[in-house]
Hints:
The chain is an alpha/beta fold. The chain is built from 32 helices and 33 strands. Residues 176-407 form the Aconitase B swivel domain.
Amino acid sequence: MSxxxxxxxxxxxxxxxxxxxxxxxxxxxxxxxxxxxxDTAHPHRADSxxxxxxxxxxxxxxxxGAKAQFLKDxxxxxxxxxxxxxxFAFELLSHMKGGPSVEVLLDLALGDNTEVAQRAVDVLKTxxxxxxxxxxxxxxxxxxxxxxxxxxxESYVQAEFFTKLPExxxxxxxxxxxxxxxxxxxxxxxxxxQAHSRSDRELHGKCLISEAAQQEIxxxxxxxxxxxxxxxxxxxxxxxxxxxxxxxxxxxxxxxxQASPYVPFVNFAPxxxxxxGISPIFLTTVGVTGGIGVDxxxxxxxxxxxxxxxxxxxxNPVLEQKYSVDTGTVLTINTREKKLYSEDGSEExxxxxxxxxxxxxxxxxxxxxxxxxxxxxxxxxxxxxxxxEAPLVFAPSKxxxxxxxxxxxxxxxxxxxxxxxxxxxxLHAGSDVRVKVNIxxxxxxxxxMTSQELEAMAATVLSPSVDGAxxxxxxxxxxxxxxxxxxxxKLMAFMHKFGLITARDPKGVYHSMTDVxxxxxxDITVDDWAIIIGGDSHTRMSKGVAFGADSGxxxxxxxTGEATMPIPETVxxxxxxxxxxxxxxxxxxxxxxxxxxAQHGDNVFQGRIIEVHIxxxxxxxxxxFTDWTAEMKAKASICISNDDTLIESLEIAKAxxxxxIDKGMDNDVQMLQGLIDIAEARIAQIRSGEKPALRPDxxxxxxxxxxxxxxxxxxxxxxxxxxxxxxxxxxxTHDTIRPISYYGAEKKVDLGFVGSCMVHKGDIKIVAQMLxxxxxxxxxxxxxxxxxxxxxxxxxxxELKAEGDWEILxxxxxxxxxxxxxxxxxxxxxxxxxxxxxxxxxxxxxxxEKAAKGDTVLATSTxxxxxRVVADSATKKGxxxxxxxxxxxxxxxLGRTPTLEEYKASVNGIxxxxxxxxxxxxxxxxxxxx
Length: 930
């Protein structure tokens, strides 16, 4: 069967699902289509023309290469197609975004036909996705005296690719659509269980919110053809939980603008809003696409006569509506005045200055941030080649410096890694900074999108300035189903060729490693001054400063080795008191959130850096805190570590990287060995006193400070989704923290889960020791509810086997993963036994394994959003309660939440993860798990 015949079969199958033909990325199919176009009598010629013009993906796809070459033939007259004139061929090349299209345009621009060359140069003046191979050709032609090369460089110096674009419209009329009340997780916009389809944009778009919501949005567009639909989180924050470029893509697909008439299902510039604004990492993703994020502030706290907030019976502030944004409300955004108005402009509703900073307006004008990043580089190249000074075209980076004010930890890191900033100028929070990225992580459910983004921006190789880059396989580790089998090898092959260390060897030599990506990144981050970008909200390392990012920002970091963002404000977290022997560090994490809310009333962590002075915990254990800061809605977090502790963490990291090398995972440039070298150099700096562990200055300025009283934590803490709260906006947040006694030992637990990035080796050892203890008392352990255990990494399992802990787990398990025969079907029912699952995300991801509908799950993981770990049944809401490992294990054994006395008895003599404030000698406070 020909590729075209197979494509027709696929088209028929998609049509039955209400889908259009899938965009073409394969050169073989494109070449068949081209031959059918050339044959004027071919029965499929008309369709082939449509596919060639409107359904072939641009960038560096092999299809783009075939398309660009055929367009070149048409321009040069070696091929003739009545429907594609040379003028039209140039237009099609102008929409192909770099790679083969730029190569063809340069061939034409530097060729002998002067008329064609001038046309090619005119198109090249509009292009920005040029790489070193392209700019080298232009520079060489200029030096050889080519006048068109000079003309092109002069255009680039003036940044005409940007200045000649239309300005952002002054007024944008919007019609509102309330997607939900309360915080909106990105799971509502792009469900985790549909992750397999994210690279198929039209198919994935079908999962936005619900079919009914999609119909309502379409109806609004028909009723208001001159307006943009603004998607709203009423009484909540939009986009909590993750960056989720697929969520932004879905919103843009239904409500945004088409990027190009010749590129299917790629839309940009969505408008999203929330009563409490947009989650920081999601807002970054909105900006990547040139979209607008609106902080509505349409509900405010009701104040009493004393000027203090009026509280309801639950102790929460009573909210009153400042203005309505009910679905169908027409509003006006004035981009010049930076304000939101009523429909006729007579009433100012909210200031939008934060939505229209000079940099964000540039993204909107250019159709996204990539064009700006590459445009700036192109302008700099042209100016250096011509030996002139580039004019100030782009908005200057905001540089804020306060004389005499010290630096927080994140300010120090940003200053150390800044690029293009004013030499010698010290930058403080609020400054816009272009920074070097040291470590980049791509995870497997967004990786295919990242590869698409790399193809779209014509990138073919990892930036040499990146110290380490890793492609994981953890989000699809649980079930090796047909979707994983189709997507994962393709992703690994692409990323391996691009230059990343990959969890799966495309050549099939080394054993596949499904280790949780955050754990791997935590190990390969070997410098506390590093900046890390990862395609997941839990990119929160305990060394350096890490930012969860969308697939596009990850692609940009991989291609350029840089990221651009403001230096965030910082909240300082310190500890006092003494931790009770029966408490686990996970309870300190939950208590931090609860005590912060009690101290400040509002979430002062949201959108800011949490600088946590936790320096006596090793990297794995400290990661429990930094990981959770995603749920605190923080932008990122930084651990302030003692010298000795940091050295020990780096030694552990070195050993684990060596394991990866021994497995055969290093690449041709020996990236992993390079990381070990960096770690050794850093250890030498610390030991010699040349450069101690990162610490803030004593006179640094913080937005707020939180002091956590360890002595006040006397019983285990649970993060509860509070699914039946009368106030819908209070459901499914991570702010409801309750002591175990709240449940009175009466809360039925249907499933326990010990796993996700929140656990480390010590947690699995706790499971083993609790089984030993209970076996000694009762003779045998009986589970009243299933307990799923998924170690985050293989090296943890190897160490547990060596230390004798894996044996007791095997004794009580009714299922143990087998890499030689991985599960091909997701589990839907659980028995009351222990399940030892494959390392990876498992239940926390929600895209493969799930609890039974309506279950109450008690888990060590991070996600409690509706439908993530457990869906609702027809009669009961699913609940995902989050707690410490010993609480989860005991609850699965009892089939209910325990009393405090039962809990204390169960952990007696077990070495839980201990912590004392850093004033104590480090070695007195370390857990013995390592």
